[in-house]
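Hi again,

Forgot to attach this to my earlier email, sorry! This is the prediction with nicotinamide-adenine-dinucleotide bound. I've pasted everything inline since the attachment limit keeps bouncing my files.
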Amino acid sequence: MSTLKLNGQVAVITGASSGIGAAIASRFAAEGARVLNLDLVPSPDPAIEHLACDVSDHAAVAAVLAGVPVIDVLVNNAGVAHIGDVEGTMPADFERIFRINVAGVYHTLHAVLPRMRVAGRGVILNLCSIVAKVGIPERFAYSMSKGAVLSMTLSVARDYVDKGIRCNCLCPARVHTPFVDNFLAENYPGREAEVFARLESAQPIGRMGTPDEVASLALFLCSPDAAFITGSAYDIDGGFTLLR
Ligand SMILES: NC(=O)c1ccc[n+]([C@@H]2O[C@H](COP(=O)([O-])OP(=O)(O)OC[C@H]3O[C@@H](n4cnc5c(N)ncnc54)[C@H](O)[C@@H]3O)[C@@H](O)[C@H]2O)c1
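Structure tokens for the complex follow:
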């Protein structure tokens, strides 16, 4: 018998061409899963199959997933950021964050859940954030979106608990990915190192998380080891929420 934790499973991961999603995809593939990556751009890892798709497009997500006969695991990871308080958030900013971070999660859930329900089994993991639980300065639209991800996680966990489907989410604090580097380059040109150090010290543990650390928790939650866990929001935050 195989000791691989996802042996023979089909895992759909959104946004798996970079950062946290890429680390989860590589880890799942190493544990025996066939990984399908719904992303705008291909993955650098040749073991990860790319299905070109904009998750904010309901019809595109439905069409691309219709061609996948069995889906055992869904990881909703694709997400984008926006910096600004209410006054610094224009309607186009708000709508963009909503379309990708909120509606994007709904679109994959809507495509995948009917099939998991018929199969009588399935695991869903959503990438939320500590911003769903604590107020972070100038993250109005982003926090709105992650609050919705947390609520969707609880709602799906409740509705499908008797259908063999588990649904959880992860709430990371700062994780060092291109997401962070792009954010610094765009918002703090010339001050990247200074702001990077500040972002590191925001975690009481004294550094950012790594994508691999998030992938380890994702693997646990999507594996049979977590068979008793549903409707949970797991902090992975270097103590960020500890002192609040
Ligand atoms: N990095 C952090 O500090 C951090 C902290 C908490 C939560 N998160 C969440 O983790 C997730 C991944 O973050 P990351 O830091 O790895 O980001 P990243 O920017 O490194 O990667 C995001 C990936 O999503 C893809 N993507 C973006 N828009 C898309 C769309 N419309 N359709 C399909 N794919 C799209 C990108 O091409 C990219 O491959 C996000 O949901 C983010 O909100 C990140």
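Strands lie at 10-14, 34-39, 49-52, 73-76, 122-127, 165-172, 233-236. The first strand starts at residue 10 and ends at 14.

That should be everything now.

G.
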